[in-house]
Amino acid sequence: MMPLFDFPGGIHPPENKAQSSATPIRQAPLPPQLHVALRQSMGNAARPCVAVGDRVAKGQLIATADGRLSAAVHAPTSGVVSAISPQPFAHPSGLPELCITLDSDGEERWIERQPLHDWAQRSGAEIRDFLAQMGIVGLGGAVFPSHLKLGVSPLETLVINGAECEPYISCDDRLMRERADAICDGIAVTRHALQAHQVLIGIEDNKPQAIAAMQAAAAMHGYRVVAVPTKYPSGGAKQLIHVLTGKAIPHGVRATEHGVQCFNVATVYAIGRAVLHGEPLISRIVTLTGAVDAAANVEALIGTPLASLLTLARPHRDSKEVVMGGPLMGFTLPDLAAGLTKAGNCLLVKSPALFPPRPPAQACIRCGDCAGACPVSLQPMDLFWFAKAKNFDKAQQGQLFDCIECGACSYVCPSQIPLVDYYRFAKSEIWAAERDKNAANLARQRHEFRQLRLQRDKAEKAQRLADKATQAAARQAASHSAAANLSPDIVPGADPKQAAIAAAMARAAAQREAAPLPEQHSSGLNDAKQAAIAAAMARAAARKNAADEAKAASGQPPTPPPQSSGLDDAKQAAIAAAMARAAARKSAADEARAASGQPPTPPPQSSGLDDAKQAAIAAAMARAAARKSAADEAKAASGQPPIPSPQSSGLDDAKQAAIAAAMARAAARKAAADQAKANQQPDS
Description:
With 684 residues, the chain is α/β, with parallel strands linked by helices. It has helices spanning 18-21, 124-133, 171-178, 180-194, 208-218, 237-245, 265-277, 306-313, 369-373, 380-388, 392-397, 408-412, 419-486, 496-514, 524-553, 566-595, 608-637, 650-680, and strands spanning 26-27, 33-37, 47-48, 55-56, 61-64, 73-74, 79-87, 97-104, 155-161, 196-204, 224-228, 260-264, 283-290, 296-301, 321-324, 331-332, 346-350. Helix 3 crosses helix 5 (208-218) and helix 15 runs antiparallel to helix 18.
């Protein structure tokens, strides 16, 4: 006889299981439309991988897990995806959840199933990955992803939970009676993945038929089936582990750290179906009970509308509410249009006769009954005061999150205080504050990273500018060095622009010396240009002489002669080269005319129009000279120095030469026109 241990607290409410456990499991009819919620675990909702209009087969993956605690979702039947939209969801909040609406085609056409026939040769990691793909979660109510519970091996003990302690619920009882062999097959796979030394199957002693069926099936596997005393909540994982092994799992510690892991009988049954038959979790057994005419257990597809399931049990006319779960841990459904989820183990129909209204809550009398009933040795009255006062820090210090929300404290409270509701409120507020804190921390980290990035970008920009400045300084130094090499006369430290000009002048002088200009050829056109240049030079010399005489008369030193510069020489050289090219072109044209028997181009003839222009120019210059002389005499009479004569520059000479050249070209054009007219006149 195996020794058993007792856990603290607990209650013995009426069982009310016989109403539904008396008949075998029935198959629920295929509904025309399924609303498959994407949130099928305690983690994030899955992400759909199908689109509206897609045709899917039974067992096909329609949503992938989004995160560690999320669960994959598969098509419960074959059909067409008609919508992916928010739909009513089985949750106390009544908030809608994103669902995939599937219109069934009635064919029940499966995908090609791929079981793990060689699971005994597979590693625990391979089995875990396979179960994650199959969307297996805990079916005892917590819907924790099962593959995560297989992560620690080897273990000393694998505990299989068949207690099913809450009143009215009998789905596990019927499953053990009818499918004990399939349950043991799933236990074998789970034991292999965990490398567990022993397997203990705990069943409450109020289920003798289930105990007998499991003992018969477990005998060939070597599993031990243990009948445990009926006491609520012996079906809690920590409570059942303590009853079977005597190990008390403290707060904040996982059972695997003590060499134990616990699975529900329905969960290991789903594991066996997935590994041995390649079937994902697309259905479950649901108890229909309470104020109904035909209480029973049915196997229904995930996503089946809850209202259509209840019609199978024929609820009483005076029924008002429907609870998902048991009377102690369940919650009232806000909308029966919601689809069945993997967590839905029972639909309990309430009526005033079966569940009389609860009396109004009164003040706590601190009787201590709640503390005596608590299976985890908490102080429920203190947690109630902390939650009511919103003193959540104190509630956490009082081990609020050790509360399994079994409802034993509320059940025994003489003041009819809904204690569990206060604990749930406090937990939700703490979770919300934790989410806000995490969001604030994330925002702070993002802000700090942004500031760091801005500082880094600023430093990189400054470094790029510094590099460009260094490169520019290097190029400038190289330019100065090259200029100094070309012109040794440049003084170090001089203006870079002046140095560049001097270097250019030096290069021009060197080019001029390397290629001397050809001798000028005399021609009619060159004579006219030279005459204009000579006249300009004569006028400039006359102005200079007049200015020097005026300065000598007033006792001032004469103006020094202008110094020739490399720039003036360059301009003069360019002018001379242009004149030489023009003379060469004219000589070539004359030779071509002579060769063809035509007379050469005559020199330009002076015309009355040219003489008039020249006379006007001379008169203007005379008037300007007279005005200047009068101004100088007036300044001399007043004792002021006369205005110095303008100095001739290479630029003025160039302009005058250009004017003379233009006049010569105009004269040549006129002469050519006169010659053409003369040739057209008939001989006399």
